[in-house]
Design brief:
The complex is a heterodimer of chains A (426) and B (515).
Chain A: E1 2-6, H1 16-25, H2 27-40, E2 50-55, H3 56-59, E3 71-76, E4 87-89, E5 113-118, H4 120-127, E6 147-155, H5 165-199, H6 207-226, E7 237-244, E8 249-257, H7 264-284, E9 287-295, E10 299-302, H8 304-309, H9 318-332, E11 339-346, H10 354-366, E12 372-378, H11 385-396, E13 401-406, H12 412-419
Chain B: H1 15-31, E1 39-44, H2 46-54, H3 65-79, E2 89-91, E3 96-101, H4 106-126, H5 128-133, H6 139-157, H7 159-171, H8 188-210, H9 247-254, H10 260-281, H11 283-303, H12 309-322, H13 338-354, H14 358-363, H15 372-382, H16 385-392, H17 395-401, E4 404-409, E5 414-419, H18 426-436, H19 439-442, E6 445-451, E7 459-464, H20 475-486, E8 490-496, E9 499-506
Parallel strand pairs in B: 1-3, 7-8
Antiparallel strand pairs in B: 2-3, 4-5, 6-7, 8-9
Helix pairs in contact in B: 1-4, 1-11, 2-3, 4-11, 4-12, 6-7, 6-8, 6-10, 7-10, 7-20, 8-10, 9-10, 11-12, 11-13, 13-15, 16-18
The chains are: A alpha/beta (426), B alpha/beta (515).
Chain lengths: 426, 515
């Protein structure tokens, strides 16, 4: 007696709970690996999972076992030249001779590292664990033009493509029942009358009456048949209404100084920072657009490739970039529909008089529209005028303006975490 | 030659073909008197196979991180292509559940059905260890009960508490079996019904044992003078009276501080360990038996023209890979392949019955020339790996596999070849290999020696050391787990020839007094 069961459509991921338990248990280990990976990885590389290794001794499940030493006899296959009584040197490392234990011990035991893969989702979960976007309040509904059609019951009018077949057929059936009932009743009465008439003694029958009844029956049957199966007023349509939607779109402006003082390694650091922010935004918004603005003395909107890899020289005027961003926002990304984020990376150099202009631009025009502004200064040196001006901006907008200094690549992730640390809800 | 009219050709399969082949295999198996539980054959995807793998094939199981670890390991190996997923997985239940992987070719599906649904299945139903120690009809229900109970405990007492307890139990699960006593059968219904009763009863038993206020009955002997024990706390006999081999059972019944639900979980782990106990002792036999039958049945299918040449060639290639045995010095050597040894032995038993040589008559006077099918069934029913090798490992198999035994004595500078495949060596290799499969030798012999029920409540275990083989370093983590269960200090004494070799203790003594 045998039977087959097709289980292929059953739930997969039966082990999901156990997998999660494992990840939770080794959270600290995995986090460490993830942090290392974030610092090590190139930018384009964040879109995949990560191989994580945990020292095997940390996750071993201990049992009572024999340790090395003592006297043991091992039977092995594949003898070639040994004869009884041969004496051999013990193989170095003590591994070869002990291999006979293999059948007894669990496979995989003895490996130094337990390696496994995190999925991309799990990886990013660990990367952004405990972080949140400041000011992730969705844009106010009032000033929103964004709408989305949602189902809102059934209506009698609509376009053919939205016919609700089940409801229409139900209406039709109800109507048919209602319309046919009186006809059926009359038909039944006529039939009964006809029968009564025909049962009478032939002498007493009234042929005229019989004919009349027969005609009546015929007429009724026709009427019954002519009740339409479905009629236009049976039709029902799915009703849709437009509902205003909180905006789920974000745009992220990357501003970078490309003047002569910014070296390629500075740019790499900046790039990683931008990337982290991008991934983070992506997890919070359905759609994230990127705008790259680079500047030296003049600002220019460029594509990603050019942004990170082309070289320019010259002085630095930060306000040129801020002005450009301001223009782009006004032109393409109305604040009512977009969540606006700006990330700026610079080595802190700026044309002396320009820093004040920057502050004014920010305070007056940009900050009121932005969700969040982050500024990272990549320099081991002392701060200059720009930093000081920005500090006063931060005082004005402590919730939305954040700035940190990064000295080397290893600082990026900690700084990022610091900037987006989950804050206690005020 | 038979007219070839195969049921199907090519490598694609569908349910009709599987049903047809299954029916034919069943017919042939019946000829060979393979008595099986009904088969429940489940078609699953490779992902589901990984799930099944992680839970040792159990269709349901309680949640624990170690299964997650198992899953990740399997997944990693599979993704990297280091390991093909085993094409079969079968569990000892009634009905016997076998998994077929969707991705398999037709040949694989037929092979797996022969191997698992008729080979393993008949072994589960016939072998004395499985008959004695496990109850195939109850296991799935019991697993459901266990899963439900554990998850209820997680809700009531927190995931962390349950996890820690399970960790501790898992560390000792190899010592959660009765080796010589038949366990009472498990039944989910019974368990659930009796559970609350048992919780109370168990607790009362424990309370009796640990009662600290002496009962003044008048007859109590006055403490004798003893400077070590002025209160006479240790004079009321030794508890337990006999050493106990089942550590988890002892803990379930006697640990002073465990709450009833914790005892129940200890019991669940213990019962499941007991269920897997026969499996661990019959690896060679079980795989050998299944491999022998898939080989025989596939060849019969071919002889009857039910499969075509392509399929049988594909089969032979796969079969050869399964039973290959790399030599000890081969880079892929990973111990003796149980499929290879088991298959060689069962095939050789058949040969000894059908075409015995003089050597066979001398070594196996009882079975040489007997009915091979009777002998094979007899061997399958009444042995475990240890005794199977002891009884049936023939000189020919030793020669074919070129087995040799080597003595590794850490007091000697050199290793010594003790025996090889020659007249002087056969018997010694047989014995050495048999010992190698004995669980009692593979695992350290550890028993509960004493629970100091009147004194400091410490628990003392004895490790009977054999041939100077010490315990591995894992002893301390295991002791820590044991301490978690027992709640008071635990000690372990390694003894060899009645002499104490080494003492272990957890928690570690405050001052480092011992070397």
């Amino acid at each position: 007696m045998s039977y087959f069961i097709d289980r292929r459509l059953n739930a997969r991921h039966k082990s999901a709970v156990n997998r999660q338990r494992f990840l939770d248990r080794y959270r600290t280990h995995i986090k460490r690996s993830v942090e290392e990976a974030v610092n090590r990885r190139s930018i384009t590389d964040m879109e995949r999972g990560e191989k994580v290794s945990i020292p095997a001794r940390d996750i071993s499940e201990p049992v009572f076992q024999h340790g090395p030493g003592g006297k043991r006899t091992i039977v092995s296959p594949g003898n070639k030249e040994f004869v009884e009584g041969d004496r051999l040197r013990r193989p170095s490392g003590g591994d070869g001779g002990g291999a006979g234990e293999g059948s007894a011990s669990n496979q995989g035991e003895g490996m130094d590292e337990f390696a496994f893969s995190l999925t991309r989702e799990e990886f990013l979960d660990f990367v952004f664990d405990g972080l949140e976007l400041p000011h992730l309040e969705r844009k106010q509904l009032v000033d929103l033009e964004e709408v989305r059609p949602v189902r809102a019951g059934i209506s009698k009018d609509g376009v053919p493509s939205r016919i609700n077949i089940v409801r229409s057929m139900r209406e039709a059936q109800a109507r048919r029942i209602a319309m046919r009932a009186p006809i059926r009743r009359a038909l039944r009465e006529a039939a009964e009358a006809l029968e009564a008439e025909e049962r009478k003694d032939p002498v007493l029958r009234n042929p005229a009456r019989i004919n009349e009844l027969k005609a009546e029956i015929e007429r009724l049957e026709k009427r019954l048949e002519s009740v339409p199966f479905i009629d236009t007023y049976d039709l029902r349509y799915n009703h849709l209404v437009n509902q205003p939607q909180p905006s789920n779109k974000a745009v992220m402006f990357c501003i970078m100084d490309v003047s002569g003082s910014m070296t390629q390694s500075h740019k790499d650091i900046a790039k990683r920072f931008f990337l982290l922010l991008y991934l983070f935004l992506e997890r919070n918004y359905e759609k994230v657009e990127l705008v790259f603005v680079r500047h030296h003395t003049a600002a220019k909107e460029v594509d990603e490739e050019e942004f990170f890899y082309s070289r320019e020289t010259g002085g630095t005027i930060v306000s040129s970039a801020l002005t450009l961003v301001d223009e782009i926002i006004t032109k393409r990304y109305p604040a009512a529909q977009w969540n606006l984020y700006v990330a700026q990376a610079s080595d802190g150099d700026n044309w002396d008089d320009d820093s004040t202009t920057c502050r004014q631009l920010l305070v007056k025009s940009l900050m009121p529209r932005l969700q969040y502004y982050t500024y990272v200064e990549i320099t081991p040196h002392a701060h200059q005028a720009l930093w000081e001006e920005y500090e006063s901006v931060q005082d004005d907008f402590p919730e939305r303006f954040a700035m940190r200094q990064i000295v080397e690549a290893g600082d990026i992730y900690p700084v990022f975490r610091e900037l987006f640390r989950r804050r206690a809800v005020a | 030659m038979t007219q070839r009219s195969p049921i199907a050709t090519g490598s694609d399969w569908n349910f009709e073909m599987l049903t047809d082949y299954e029916r034919e295999i069943a017919r042939l198996a019946d000829e060979y008197r393979l008595d099986t539980y009904p088969n429940q054959i489940e078609i699953i995807t490779s992902e589901q196979m990984m799930d099944a793998y992680a839970s040792v094939g159990m269709p349901v199981g309680y949640h624990h991180w170690s299964f997650g670890k198992q899953f990740l390991a399997v997944e990693q190996a599979y993704r990297r292509g280091q390991m093909g997923l085993a094409y079969e997985l079968v569990i000892n239940s009634d009905p016997c559940i076998a998994y077929l992987m969707e991705e398999n070719t037709l040949m694989m599906q037929v092979l797996v059905m022969a191997h698992a649904c008729y080979g393993h299945n008949s072994f589960f139903k016939g072998n004395y260890l499985f008959r004695t120690w496990t109850d195939a009809s109850a296991i799935v229900d019991y697993l459901v009960f266990a899963r439900k109970y554990v998850s209820e405990c997680e809700e009531r007492f927190g995931v962390a508490a349950v996890e820690q307890l399970l960790d501790a139990c898992h560390a000792l699960q190899n010592y959660g079996v009765d080796r010589y006593k038949r366990p009472s059968p498990i039944s989910a219904e019974e368990e659930a019904r009796r559970q609350s009763e048992r919780e109370e009863y168990l607790q009362s038993q424990v309370n009796m044992l640990w009662r600290t206020i002496p009962s003044f009955q008048g007859q109590e002997p006055l403490p004798q003078d003893d400077d070590e024990d002025p209160l006479g706390l240790r004079q009321q006999g030794h508890y337990p009276a006999e050493p106990q081999e089942n550590l988890l059972y002892f803990i379930e019944k006697n640990a002073p501080l465990l709450a009833p639900w914790q005892r129940e979980i200890v019991r669940i782990v213990r019962k499941l360990a007991q269920y897997f106990y026969p499996q661990r002792q019959t690896q060679v036999m079980n795989e050998g038996w299944a491999t022998f039958w898939h080989y025989t049945l596939m060849n019969r299918l071919y002889d009857e023209g039910l499969v075509d040449e392509g399929l049988i060639l594909e089969f032979l290639q796969s079969h050869t890979a399964v039973v290959s045995q790399p030599g000890f010095d081969h880079p892929h050597y990973n111990g003796i392949n149980p499929y290879a040894l088991g298959f060689a032995m069962f095939s050789d038993i058949r040969r000894i019955c059908e075409a015995p040589t003089d050597e066979d008559r001398q070594w196996f006077p009882d079975i040489a020339g007997s009915d091979w099918l009777d002998t094979l069934h007899f061997a399958m029913r009444n042995f475990k790996d240890e005794s199977f090798v002891q009884q049936f490992l023939s000189p020919k198999v030793i020669r074919d596999l070129k087995l040799f035994s080597l003595v590794d004595d850490d007091s000697e500078e050199m290793l010594e070849i003790e025996a090889i495949h020659d007249d002087r060596g056969y018997q010694r290799i047989r014995e050495a290999l048999s010992v190698q499969y004995a669980l009692s030798v593979r695992e350290p012999n550890i028993q509960v020696w004493k629970a100091d029920i009147r004194g400091d409540r410490s628990l003392t275990l004895h490790h009977v050391q054999d041939r100077r083989r010490p315990l591995a370093k894992s002893v301390y983590p295991v002791m820590r787990h044991l301490h978690h269960l027992w709640g008071f200090p635990v000690k372990l004494v390694s003894m060899e020839d009645k002499e104490v070799v080494r003492r272990y203790q957890w928690p570690l003594p405050e001052k480092v007094g011992e070397k």
